[in-house]
Here is the input.
Amino acid sequence: MFSSLKNFFTGGEKVRSAREQIAGLTSKELERGKKGLKSRDQELLRQQQGVTRRHALKLLATALGAVGLGVGGNEVYEVLSRPGRVDFHPVRFSPSQKSDIEGMMENQEVWKQITMRALDRFEDSHPRVAQLKAFTEQNAVYPIAVGPQVTQLLMQDPEESMRFLKNPIGFEIVFMSPQYAQSMPSSILTEPGGKTVRLAETFTCLEWLGIMLSHELSHVDDQLNHGEDSRDRDQYMKGEVRAHLFEKELLKLWGSEQFEQMVDEGFDLAKKADIDGFRAVAERYFPLDGLNPGEESLALASCMMSVLMEGYQLRGADEEELVKVYESTARAMQGGDSRLPF
Here is the structure.
């Protein structure tokens, strides 16, 4: 089952080749520093990013059905967000710009649909996912990234824009293109305060996306609805433990027997932070091969931390002890191997 899904999600040799070229060109761009890429390489990078983006949209259209939004008139409303500042104003455009505006609004709707579909994977089997999905449907918006920390939300209804701006528990889910995702420390993250969740566009497996997104939405819920202060170290650590215990429950739902086997075979390896040894165990039970590098790192980290949480809980660990487990494991991984985004 996983092998057939892998080929469907990865998009074949053309998409894999495009991703490799993007990785090589972005590395080259970083090496050149202020000089940047030569014009020929810049054009090649744009072309290959287009290949991967078209594949993502094709995948979603296949899974979800085509999305169509007609822009009436020549005016929409923009919410432009950046650190410490939010601007709201109408955007007038010429008839020739209409297709570009429609495309951006369709992208917003597409990413909303893939978010819901990822959560659908676990909604019926876990009440916390169902609660977080309902919370997201009521309060989230899906702006377009126009910079590493700048987003643009386009709406036709000015009242809808104002409702979002005035909503104390409103937040944004932003899918980051490869151009901007390269500046992220992880392929998915929640910014302090819980008002923004950023995801790289490179996720290929809806189950992994559903698990990772559920983790991040639990942080949003904790911070916006329950007063957690992510700047407080104790609150932050306990929030991470809760989120990883949540991930563990979802992995069990995805494959209970597989999870038990992974715990039996991988707990001692995880305790020793033997990443290569643990990966050889984890990939026998959950799909890791064929994922994008950032997605694979998150999936492997999820498996490792879930195995540790389960193993220590079976040995009677309480919340305080699990916080120490999380902290020591994260420190070991960050110091010894940058592949795992703890």
Remarks:
- Residues 39-64 form the longest helix (26 residues).
- The mean pLDDT is 82.
